[in-house]
Structures are given as C-alpha cells and as structure tokens.
Amino acid sequence: MKKYAVAALLLIVSVVTIPAVPACISGRPEAAPDDKVQLREYVFSSDADSRETDFSSEPYRVLDTISGEVIDVPIREYVIGAVCAEMPASFGEEALKAQAVAAHTYAERRRLSERSSPTAELRGADFSNDTAVYQGFFTKERAKECFGEKFDENYEKISAATDEVLPYIITHDEAPIIAAFHSMSPGFTESAENVWGAPVDYLVEVDSRYDLTAPHFREKKDYSHEDLRTALGSAFPGIVLGDDIKKWIEVLNVSDSGTVLTASVGDMTVTGGELRDALGLRSASFEYSADSSGATITTKGFGHGVGMSQYGANAMASEGKNWREILEHYYPGCNISKTKLTN
After folding, report:
1. What distance in Å separates the CA atoms of residue 168 and residue 195, rounded to the nearest whole number?
2. Crossing angle for the helix pair 75-86 and 93-116, nearest 10 degrees?
3. Fewest Cβ atoms closer than 10 Å to its Cβ: which of 75, 121, 169, 322?
4. pLDDT tens digits along 126-185
5. For residue 342, what are the contacts with CB-CB under 8 A and spacing of at least 6?
6. Which pLDDT score, from 0 to 100, does residue 234 have?
7. Integer Cα distance of 143 and 157 in angstroms
8. What single DSSP character describes residue 5?
9. Residue 1 has pLDDT above 90, yes or no
10. Does the pLDDT at position 341 exceed 70?
C-alpha cells in the first residue's frame, strides 16, 4: 500500500466531518427537526468490478474520554453507530449507504494512521469518542436515547443500509481516502486546498446545487454593535475596528464555490474560516451588511463544504441515484474497494 501524502495525514484528524448531526448531542445545532437531527479512476458499478484490498477484521479500538478506557468495537457496530451519529435516519437508504462507506473509510484510514504514527494521547486506540476531534459514534444505548420511540425503526433502517455496503471503502492510490463530508454546501463543494491549504486530488469543487433547497440553506445572524465588537475583539486580540460598523468586516476574496477566502476585519486580514470560527457561523460562505442598528451576516450552506454534501447525497438518492453514484460524484477519481477483512 502506498504511503499517504504528508499533507493529507495532517488533515485527517480535525477536518473530516462537519455533519448533519443528531440534536441530542449537546451544543450541536438542529437542521432536521423531524428526525431530531441537526443538522478517481472511477467508482465501479458492480461487485464484480470492485477492487479487493486487505484490511484487518479486528475491532476498532476507541478511547472513552470519560472513563479513560480503551474499548474494542466490532467493525459493523462501529459503522452503524457512526451513521446513527452523523446522518439523519430520515434520509434515503442510498444516502445512508454512502455515509456508511464514508464512515468505514474514515475509520480504516485512522487505524492505518495510528499504526504508522501512534498518537500518545490515544493510548493505543485508533480514535476516541470525542466528537469535537473525531467522527461521531453512538453506542446502541446512546442511539436509543437519541431516537427515543423511533429507535427500533431508525436503527433497523440504518443497520440494513450498513449491512449492504459493509465490505466497501473508498480508496485512492490503494489507500483509504480522507472521506471528508459536511451537512450542505453553498451550491458547489469546496476544494481542500481552499479550506485547509493543501491540495487533495479528489477533494475538489463539484456541483452540488441540490443543496439550494435544503432546510436552513440560507440563514441570517444579527449582531448589535457591542456584541460584534466583543466577539471580534476576543477572537482577534489587538484589533482596531474604528467607528463605522459598515467597515468592520469587508470580504476581499471569494472562491469559485462561494467560500470567503480572505476578509479585512478592522485593521487585520483574516481567512473566511477564521472569521467563521470567531463568530460561530454556519459556513464560510457569507455576506456582511451593517447600518446604524447593527450588523447582519447571511450564510449559505452548513459546514466546511469539502467532500460529500449530506443533503446533496440525500437529494441524489431521492432522484434514484445509488450509493456508488453518490460517492463517484463527490469523490471524483476514487475507487470503491471491497475489503477482504483479513486477520
């Protein structure tokens, strides 16, 4: 198996997922209230065409950040739990299958990365259950809490979707890809280079205008003078804003996908991502306006915009596209590999 590119390895931990996540995770926003969820060479078309690749069938080792214990989670149980945590159960079956393959791919890449270069804080685990750092994962008990009376229906649906695609992962140059995904794009997905500063062959701009009709695609956030000044001063120490709130934020450069690349904030120049983090915006695709009463920032989409759009995947599924076609669209130039699951 070919070695990963250094830049790609640096990206893997913190940038893979900005999902449509379950609302029962404290602090996460809601995008699909009805489901209690917030929200390559080519992809082969049949089992016979899928490449076979050797990967371990051993359980994933997950660090429980509360107890400090490293627990073994069977592959099937982990992938089901990841889909439960990362995508609304109300989404179409083909979208759920695509999410399952992406989740499995993420976990395999993490495992290989830890074998190559262990992270001391993980204590021998492949990843932890800290959703601020790693892909989300629900135990069956946690899924019961989140799904409530719809648990049996939702868990069965997600399990069935996962079982159909469990042997498969997405690969590029014979290695599991960085299976980045997000809730919804601003109409086109973004390149890894624009968001994280390092190009990745298959994480490039693709058409995702399906997202234009997603719930909460466009959202406004209002600020008083005092609140905006406080937020910007806290995020960018030493900043000088001046008296005219209209000039506090000015967009300088925007990507073809609509992501703000750079903006002036007072006397500083920052990236759109930094400004998004500073103000807790849904995305870095935004417009700024202000008057004597305060300021308004209007965002489009939700998440970093790289890789698979979950709402886009669901829209494709509703149009009859299958999981392979969804993954081919959002990860161009990649392959679907069928794992042999060797010990």
Report:
1. 28
2. 120
3. 121
4. 999 898 899 999 999 999 999 999 999 999 999 999 999 999 999 999 999 999 999 999
5. 54, 55, 56, 57
6. 97
7. 13
8. P
9. no
10. no
- Report the distance separating Cα 267 and Cα 36, nearest Å: 42
Instruction: Tell me if 283 sits within 8 A of 276, measured CB to CB.
Output: yes
- Amino acid 39: pLDDT: 33
Q: Is residue 20 within 8 Å of residue 310, measured between CB atoms?
A: yes
Q: How would you classify the pairing of strands 175-176 and 127-128?
A: unpaired
Question: Cα–Cα distance between 3 and 201 in angstroms, integer?
Answer: 15
Q: Where does the chain have alpha helices with state H?
A: 6-11, 75-86, 93-116, 140-147, 151-165, 192-196, 225-235, 272-279, 310-318, 323-330
Q: How many Å apart are CA 166 and CA 160, to the nearest integer?
A: 10
Asked if residues 255 and 194 have their Cβ atoms less than 8 Å apart, the reply is: yes
Pair 275, 284: CB distance under 8 Å: yes
The mean pLDDT value for 74-89 works out to: 97
| DSSP code at position 2 | P
DSSP string, 191-226: -HHHHHSS--TT----B-GGGGGSTTSEEEEEE-HH
333 Cβ neighbours under 8 A, 6+ residues apart: 40, 41, 42, 172, 201, 202
- Residue 255 in contact with residue 190, Cβ under 8 Å? yes
Q: Which pLDDT band, with edges at 50, 70 and 90, does 54 fall under?
A: low
The helix/strand/coil state of 56 is strand
Residue 315, C-beta contacts closer than 8 angstroms, at least 6 positions apart:
210, 211, 213, 214
* Side chain identity at residue 189, one-letter code: T
Mean predicted confidence (pLDDT) in 203-213: 97
Q: How many helices (H) and strands (E) does the chain have?
A: 10, 16
Determine the Cα–Cα distance for residues 249 and 201; give it in Å rounded to an integer. 33
What's the CA gap between 340 and 166, in Å, rounded?
Answer: 11
Residue 43, amino acid: V
pTM comes to 0.85
Predicted confidence band of residue 30 (pLDDT cuts 50, 70, 90): very low
* Paired tokens of 118: 């262990």
